[in-house]
Amino acid sequence: MGIAESILLTIATAATPLLIAALGELVVERSGVLNLGVEGMMVMGAVCGFAGAALSGSPWVGILSGVAAGALFSMLFGVLTLSVATNQVATGLSLTILGLGLSGMIGEPFVGQAGIKLPSLHVPGLTDIPLVGRLLFGQDPIFYLSIALTAGVVWFLFRTRTGLTLRSIGDNHASAHALGIPVIRYRYLAVLFGGACAGLAGAHLSLVYTPQWVENMTAGRGWIALALVVFASWRPLRVLAGAYLFGAVTIGQLHAQALGIGVPSQLLSSLPYLATIVVLVLISRNRRLTMMNTPASLGRAFVPDR
After folding, report:
1. Do 127 and 138 contact (CB within 8 A), yes or no?
2. Among candidates 135, 147, 146, 141, which has minimal Cα distance to 8?
């Protein structure tokens, strides 16, 4: 396998969890809910995914465990913010702190254990094509799911009546309620979907990207996924492009360290996060771009009798 093929494969693997988590959060924010607990849900998906695979011997059980963990954690957020109407920002931050601490406790018995890697596909005759064979026909199944998920979110949000209803709730939940739309029910379903995606992204980290459990192994990827939603102006296809851009930055700094470039390794490791900050600063300077697709009700609690 050539260097170019290796780099492309690792970029795709690095971008997949970012893409899945960001797509889930995009749907949540399109409904008018701001969930800053993506990092906590991802790390819970990572530890429960690894634990499920280790205890059952099946990586698919691990994937399902990660999805379930993310979904359950998102329901905690949903109950607090949608039913009790707590502050969404504070609740999301608390969810992240809880997830990081709880995952460390759950994962302690699994530290140092060999992981069970989710096998990649192999299509005879196609996977062996030079350069593009493994990239197109030899990836792990979650990679293909992430591409299908992108197409599915585009279709759902912009081609279905339910997606239009969800976007209308995010733009004006009071008007949607006045028309008889069950705002809280839609938002619960969106939050559940976002949590399941975050859990799947976390399970991908511990079962595909680096098949092992290490405390805090998400390493800020949940925050990058949140930034991707803003970077993409709440558009799924832009999320896809942004995820691969940030994946390329992540892999690029690893290859730069391997080549021994005369730059401190700590600075190179910080490049993905520096890129996130730079992108957010540039976007915030253009108010028109920021407000163009921002859901008007984003982050605002909704109580039907108010």
Report:
1. yes
2. 135
Report residues of the chain scoring pLDDT below 70: 1-2, 254-269, 283-292, 305-306
Answer yes or no: are the C-beta atoms of 223 and 276 closer than 8 Å: yes
Domains in the chain with CATH codes: 3-117+126-292 (1.10.3470.10)
Could you give the CA distance from residue 197 to residue 17 in angstroms, rounded to a whole number?
9
Determine the Cα angle at 79 with ends 43 and 164, to 5°.
90
pTM for the complete prediction? 0.92
* Alpha helix positions (H), the chain: 3-30, 38-56, 59-78, 88-107, 133-137, 141-159, 161-171, 173-178, 183-204, 221-231, 236-258, 265-269, 271-285, 287-292
